[in-house]
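Hello, quick one for you while I still have it in my head. A protein chain has come my way and I'm curious about its shape. I'm sending you its amino acid sequence along with the backbone structure tokens. I'd be grateful if you could look everything over and explain what you see. Here's the protein in full, and shout if anything looks odd to you:
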Amino acid sequence: MSKYQKQFISMGGKVFWADVYRVLRAFGVTCPAVQHAVKKLLMPGQRGAKDKLQDLEEALWSVSEAIDMARAGLPEGGTLTGETEVEPEPEPEPKPKLVTWRLCVRIQPGELDEGALYVKWYRSGDIPEDWYPIEAQSQPVETVKQLSEAWEP
């Protein structure tokens, strides 16, 4: 049994336990603002989180909201903007696909003796066997599609 459950006696004399949510359901209270106010008014300052005055002020605010919603002709559970459902958040834009370029160096025995190194940019996956990557750079695919064949990053 939780501290929020209270003992009741039915009209027929039967003893039973219920909490505020069962009471609200039994009385058919469906407006969220009224539900909030009733909950605050049944146990002001006794639930441990807030004092009596703060619970009473919040109940007053909730009743005021319920009145505003009723004057606006909103269905119970609606909002003052007329929306009855929460708008779904827009899906994030997909991240652009990237092409990775690798700066490669060609290492061949004769060239090493001469002190000459050749470097060239290749797309990942297109690197010839005798070239070795030493640096990488990524760009969106759409950017790469617009480049001329001779372009290097």
The CA atoms of residues 34 and 63 lie 6 Å apart. The first helix runs from residue 20 to 26.
